[in-house]
């Protein structure tokens, strides 16, 4: 019943977002057909479908008064021409300068609509027009700011549908199989939520490798426009948020006054590491903090003018973000989980498997930083370091095995193995059964990860194909 209600709520949420998007398109269609621009299929596709503003037309609203006040403009032009006519007959440079010096003595016709634009600030309506223009500009700034907030919020909510869909699939499997009941609830929640985060993190990292978020500079490239937040800052923020919330959730299920268990202390220690390592990562990514840290380099110089200009030029490494703390957190978590105590040997081996996969991602991310430090990105095109492709695969696969390592699932796997060989219960046969089961877990996780990566490639590629249809760009070879 709970799964069904969540599903209906998610459907309603998706329909609401679709309704908002459809309404926005309808508004743009109406504006397109009511506007003065020439109606073509290309313009319709660009303005309505791609949501891009049309090119600025010189007959736009800001020029309305200049065009409509034709009589006033012609009268002012004639008056000005009659004043300039005698000067045009004299010697060019000297008389023109003399006329410019006596410009305030010339006869001038004032317009009631556009004199503040055509003529100088001595127009009798200049103050009122300036105040009106200031208010108009202020209101436009507010509208633009609210529009940015609205677009950002809608984009986040729209992309959250993917995570909500993943959650519905996981809870649907749990509901269908009848798992995660009674004493297994907290353990299932921990494995499924945390494993789902690593799984999604791996898919997102692979999408970055393919070129997603290149417009923000998150695809290991130079941002085409200045971006306020780097990908490492977002990673550090998510790590910080994960740690600050998970620190207090480890005591779920414990009664008041119960002592801390060894497992609780282990998990709380990892959560605290996420908390403060995320803070350090965000601090390193802050441009203001970086300026503060660099200010000590000039403390010994009495005057800033004495420093050569080339000495304060940012080094090439400033073009990229080399923040090792997200990778450090994931690597330490993997190493700790590989050494995590479990009741059965098979459960230990499963934890060692996904712990080593997370540790492999950490090492590969450090290799990415090493190679990019030697050769920082110089283009707005995605650089696609191969270490990120491998690292994202290890991360996603490790998150999936993490979800497989619930106590119920591992016990069910062990029972299946013992049922297959009931008469051979020696240690060697038991170890062989564990190895076979670990291989099965790994093979299933690798197969599902490959399928998910193929789906991600199709989605990102289809999105890029749609964008390329209206972009005429010739790529220059680096050879």
Q: What does this molecule look like?
A:
With 479 residues, the chain is an all-alpha fold. The chain has helices at residues 2-34, 41-49, 64-68, 70-88, 92-101, 115-118, 126-177, 185-210, 231-249, 262-285, 287-294, 325-338, 345-374, 386-404, 407-420, 427-468.
Mean pLDDT: 77
Largest β sheet strand count, sense and barrel closure = none
SS-based class: mainly alpha
| Straight-line distance between termini | 61 Å
Shape: globular
Percentage of helical residues?
Answer: 55-70%
What series of H and E elements makes up the topology? HHHHHHHHHHHHHHHH
Could you give the count of β-strands? Answer: 0
Q: Could you tell me the strand content as a percent range? A: under 5%
> DSSP helix count?
16
| Unreliable sequence segments | 56-94, 96-127, 418-425
Oligomer type: single chain
The Cα radius of gyration reads 33 Å
Summarize the structure in short:
Helix content is 68%, strand content 0%.
How is the topology of this model organized?
Blueprint: H1 2-34, H2 41-49, H3 64-68, H4 70-88, H5 92-101, H6 115-118, H7 126-177, H8 185-210, H9 231-249, H10 262-285, H11 287-294, H12 325-338, H13 345-374, H14 386-404, H15 407-420, H16 427-468
Keywords:
single chain; 16 helices; globular
């Amino acid at each position: 019943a709970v799964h069904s209600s969540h599903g209906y709520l998610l459907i309603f949420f998706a329909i609401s977002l679709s309704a908002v998007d459809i309404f926005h398109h309808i508004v743009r269609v109406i504006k397109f057909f009511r506007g003065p621009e020439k109606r073509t299929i290309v313009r319709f596709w660009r303005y309505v479908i791609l949501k891009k503003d049309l090119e600025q037309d010189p007959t736009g609203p800001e020029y309305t008064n200049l065009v409509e006040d034709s009589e006033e403009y012609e009268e002012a032009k004639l008056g000005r021409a009659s004043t300039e006519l005698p000067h045009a007959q004299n010697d060019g440079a000297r008389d023109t300068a003399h006329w410019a010096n006596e410009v305030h003595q010339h006869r001038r016709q004032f317009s009631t609509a556009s004199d503040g634009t055509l003529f100088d600030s001595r127009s009798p309506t200049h103050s009122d027009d300036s105040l009106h223009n200031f208010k108009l500009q202020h209101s436009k700034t507010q509208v633009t700011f609210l529009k940015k907030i609205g677009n950002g919020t809608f984009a986040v909510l729209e992309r959250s549908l993917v995570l909500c869909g993943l959650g519905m699939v996981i809870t649907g499997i749990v509901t269908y199989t009848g798992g995660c009941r009674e004493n297994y609830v907290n353990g299932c929640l921990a494995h499924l939520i945390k494993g789902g985060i690593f799984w999604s993190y791996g898919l997102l990292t692979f999408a970055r490798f393919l070129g997603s978020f290149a417009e923000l500079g998150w695809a290991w490239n130079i941002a085409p426009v200045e971006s306020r937040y780097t990908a490492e800052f977002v990673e550090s923020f998510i790590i910080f948020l994960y740690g600050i919330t998970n620190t207090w959730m480890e005591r779920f299920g414990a009664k008041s006054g119960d002592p801390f268990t060894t497992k609780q202390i282990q998990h709380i220690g990892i959560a605290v590491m996420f908390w403060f390592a995320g803070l350090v990562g965000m601090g390193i990514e802050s441009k203001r903090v970086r300026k503060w840290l660099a200010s000590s380099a000039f403390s010994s110089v009495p005057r800033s003018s004495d420093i050569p200009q080339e000495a304060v030029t940012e080094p090439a490494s400033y073009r990229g973000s080399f923040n090792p703390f997200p990778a450090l957190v994931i690597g330490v978590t993997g190493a700790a989980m590989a050494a995590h105590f479990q009741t059965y040997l098979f459960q230990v081996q499963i934890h060692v498997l996904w712990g080593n996969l997370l540790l492999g991602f950490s090492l590969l991310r450090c290799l990415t930083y090493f190679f990019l430090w030697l050769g920082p990105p110089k283009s707005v095109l995605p650089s696609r370091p191969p270490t990120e492709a491998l690292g994202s695969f290890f991360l996603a696969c490790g998150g999936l095995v993490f979800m497989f390592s619930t106590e119920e699932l591992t016990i069910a796997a062990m029972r299946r193995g013992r049922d297959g060989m009931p008469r051979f219960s020696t240690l060697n046969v038991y170890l062989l059964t564990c190895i076979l089961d670990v291989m099965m877990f790994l093979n299933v996780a690798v197969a599902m990860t490959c399928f998910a990566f193929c789906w991600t490639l199709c989605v990102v590629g289809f999105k890029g194909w749609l964008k390329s249809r209206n972009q005429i760009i010739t790529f220059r070879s680096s050879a």
